[in-house]
Amino acid sequence: MTVEIRKIPTGVPGLDEILGGGLPEYSFNILGGGPGSGKTTIAHQVMFANATPEKPAVYFTILGEPAIKMLRYQQQFSFFDGRKVNESIFFINLSEKVLSASLDTVMDEIIREVEAINPGIVIVDSFRTLTRKLATSEVDDLTLQEFVQKLALQLTTWEATTFLVAEYDDTERRDNPIFTVADGLLWLFQQQESNSIVRKLQVVKMRGVETVPGMHTFRINDGGVQTFPRNLGLLGRDEAARDAPPLSSGIPELDVMLGGGIPAGDSLLIAGPTGCGKSLIATHFIEAGLRNGEAGIIAVFEERPDDYAKRADGFGLDLTGGVDAGKLEIIYLRPLDLSVDETVYELLDAVQRTGATRVVIDSLAGFEMALAPGFRTDFREALYRMIGALTSAGVTIVTTVEVTERFTQIEFSGYTVSFLSDDIIRLRYVEFDGEIGKVMFIVKMRGGHHSKEIRRYEIQSDGIAVSDEPLRGYTGLLTGIPTRPKP
Amino acid sequence: MDPGHVDRLALRIVEDEGTRVAASLHDADLILHICDKMHPSISRLAGSLSYRALLSRALAIARVRGKTLGALRFESDGKLIFDPEHPAAEFLNPDTVRKDAVILVAAFLGLLMKLIGDVVTVRIVCQVWPEVKAE
Known about the structure:
The complex is a heterodimer.
Chain A: E1 7-8, H1 15-18, E2 23-24, E3 28-33, H2 39-50, E4 57-61, H3 67-74, E5 89-93, H4 95-100, H5 103-117, E6 121-125, H6 127-136, H7 141-157, E7 161-167, H8 177-181, E8 184-193, E9 196-206, E10 215-221, E11 224-228, H9 239-242, H10 252-257, E12 267-272, H11 278-291, E13 296-300, H12 305-314, H13 319-324, E14 328-332, H14 340-354, E15 358-362, H15 364-370, H16 373-376, H17 379-392, E16 396-402, E17 423-432, E18 435-445, E19 454-460, E20 463-466
Parallel strand pairs in A: 3-7, 3-8, 4-5, 4-6, 6-7, 12-16, 12-17, 13-14, 13-15, 15-16
Antiparallel strand pairs in A: 1-2, 8-9, 9-10, 10-11, 17-18, 18-19, 19-20
Chain B: H1 3-21, H2 29-46, H3 48-62, E1 72-74, E2 80-82, H4 94-116, H5 118-128
Antiparallel strand pairs in B: 1-2
Helix pairs in contact in B: 1-2, 1-4, 2-3, 2-4, 2-5, 3-4, 4-5
């Protein structure tokens, strides 16, 4: 019978998904990266997530961060449970042994402690310091590799899952004999992008599991390290949601134009120039859901949630009541250095938390500005991933985008993202008899029939009012300067 | 943990050790004995250097209140010894030793709590003095 490799939780949100379900039990891993990249924190999360009195964890410290300081800082994270220290988690300092004794003595000490404690998790931090120390003595690469191999053999045989925490820079990954021995290589990076720093994690190798390839962004917050798998939300699709009836936009005449409403599970783009009511239409969409008992999420980037809700309330669209009732979350995403995956995570988390079926992203320009520069360069991919993840979750998305108005030509979006949207509503300023008026029309609806009419609309004290009659008798409406042929 | 609790914990440790070993020790040796007893646990956790650094800082804090503690000093190998020639040694008697031992242990534990928190400190204390665990 084939041996089954059990997967243990890492305790790092998102990392189990990246690892294809968790960390292979009894694996011997190297956790590498530069200073301050989060290695020690991940090691602690793994340890605190798994240590029990029956199967404890041992943390060997070697010449790296002094244990007192490490304990002081690590307990600032919410995962740190001081009650586990000396009960199921044991910190053992090997610095003096490393400084004063031979490689064999260090090995003997580790083996002695492992045999005495019988741990399920073993961490050696910093392993790099050990190899540096050995490099100053007469230990060659082969002896070091033999040391690592013996250590791996010993710890795996004793049924321990091991992490060697090591400060390596990226160039040292090549041709390093130690890495051949390891079952898993997890690498942490801090990449500078203009004035921003983006943290990324890569599973370079992990024997026995199918991992998610690529670079995954992560943050270090009060809870420790949190990773954002780059395939977040893209696997699986909620087909049942797509069979639901169309959703009302909250504007009856617009629903008629849309052929009955916005198809459930669609991504709808509202494109138009500044001040034409894009956010207000999106607000109608959310408010209609609230009136129908449906929860909603609004992601805002340029405006504080309170201000956004108050502005809607001013039109008689009660968002504040929805927030108070827990049916609506207006999420203000930090307007600096976001990663796409983090944004997707925040939105999917809110969708799960509230059971939302309607999501508004207001606006794409704000979203783009909130992203770290590296993600802005491929904004289309960012949008593809975000919209894909949200629609896969079965929610219906309304996105707003500002377009520069050019009289004589029409654009659907400055981001050339129209192909990502199932449906597009275009708003436009048009001159009528020396006055500026507003018109709307449906550009496309991927799922079905829609009105081809161009209708006038106005922003009134109670929101958007769309004419129930199409504009007839004009030509050149799309240029913004229509003419009415003389009879 | 407030200073009153730390003092009571220190008093409990000193009383226990005093009852257990005082008869076989000279006066100042009680303080050295208690320090030696903490040494392996702290060294195992953080190394001998950390233990020495913690103890020297605790001693500096405790000397303000403990008359006899001025006679304690570290030798070059890091070992804590009592210097009978030091002027502070003249205050030595069983009462002052116990009182000053409490002051030093309280300073040591207080410092540890400040650095690594109450919970982890108490876990370490319980490892050295399991009978304290019940309290």
